[in-house]
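Propose amino acids for all 346 sites.
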């Protein structure tokens, strides 16, 4: 099924970003609702919401590892300008949400599906009721979902555990599997499993995986997230100036949980009942594009309308963070996402 045409939409451009952030976007951001709820195990989970005065489609933005919704001000502004209600969540253990270890910089979660349970609670208890409060008819309105990187894996698990929660989903550079580089999967898993077992025996708290450390910034020239120097510099400055949202590298336990999530994603593919499109960054070094290809191929065999043509929509040459990339990569990605949402809006 071809996607509906989307007009050439004017999103914030790189050349406008600095000025817009200090003026229009800043003014817009002050109008948001910023609150929290108690997630699984009474862990505090923070979120933000930006609603329209009229009935509007709702989008839940599911952020990636180490991110905070504060990083998504430009995207939230652009989506709101297109007439959407926008809801964003900070996952447990990162962003403004409650940290889970004494060292707040360590990337950790006890079980990966805890992220998915939190997300479902956010959608069912906060997002969906808010969207339906705006409607005069009886038919329940479900939100769309836009998920990035680790947020993509969380979103898939949530949609597998709660198949009727979401209307349609767009996954950008989803973490179906972490990119192991040149290390074979069997060896990477062996190192992770052994390391986590040793941690459980000898450490009171989960330890960083080999080479991981507390929060530190990377010079733009060495970054593999985006080609956009202006967008990169803005979110680096945001993190440097907000200690509360700083997060370091991952623990061995987190990596073990990401492997478990990968297994669950493929084991439960037939439980997905949400129309999904996957957007792949052509030059991604953070997550595995091969795992994304396999996911789309297998999902398409289960339902031919999901992952059209049985493969990701590839943004050639783009780095991992499509939504923070140069305009030439970012604009087609957002256009494709909005076309997907439009096809499943009613």
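Proposal:
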């Amino acid at each position: 099924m071809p996607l509906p045409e989307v007009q050439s939409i004017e999103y914030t451009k790189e050349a406008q970003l600095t000025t817009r952030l200090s003026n229009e976007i800043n003014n817009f951001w002050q109008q948001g609702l910023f609150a929290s709820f108690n997630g699984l195990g009474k862990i505090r989970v923070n979120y933000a919401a930006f609603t329209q005065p009229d009935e509007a489609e709702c989008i839940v933005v599911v952020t990636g590892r180490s991110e905070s919704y504060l990083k998504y001000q430009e995207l939230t502004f652009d989506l709101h300008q297109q007439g959407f209600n926008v809801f964003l969540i900070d996952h447990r253990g990162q962003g403004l949400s409650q940290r889970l270890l004494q060292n707040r910089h360590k990337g950790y979660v006890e079980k990966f599906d805890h992220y998915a349970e939190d997300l479902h609670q956010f959608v069912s208890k906060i997002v969906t009721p808010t969207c339906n409060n705006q409607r005069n008819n009886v038919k329940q309105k479900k939100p769309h979902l836009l998920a990035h990187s680790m947020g993509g894996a969380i979103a898939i698990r949530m949609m597998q555990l709660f198949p009727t929660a979401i209307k349609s989903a767009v996954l950008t550079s989803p973490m179906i599997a972490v990119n192991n580089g040149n290390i074979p999967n069997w060896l990477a898993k062996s190192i992770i499993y052994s390391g986590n077992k040793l941690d459980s025996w000898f450490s009171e708290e989960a330890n960083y995986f080999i080479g991981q450390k507390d929060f530190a910034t990377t010079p733009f020239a060495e970054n593999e997230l985006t080609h956009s120097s202006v967008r990169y510099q803005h979110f680096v400055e945001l993190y440097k100036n907000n200690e509360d949202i700083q997060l370091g590298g991952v623990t061995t336990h987190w990596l073990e949980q990401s492997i478990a999530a990968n297994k669950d994603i493929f084991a439960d593919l037939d439980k997905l009942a949400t129309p999904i499109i996957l957007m792949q960054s052509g030059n991604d070094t953070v997550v595995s594009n091969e795992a994304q290809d396999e996911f789309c191929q297998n999902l398409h065999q289960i339902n031919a309308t999901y992952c059209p043509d049985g493969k990701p929509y590839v943004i050639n040459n783009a780095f991992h963070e499509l939504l923070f990339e140069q305009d030439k990569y970012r604009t087609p990605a957002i256009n494709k996402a909005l076309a997907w949402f439009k096809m499943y809006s009613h």
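Residues 55 and 137 are 11 Å apart (CA to CA). The longest helix spans residues 113-133.
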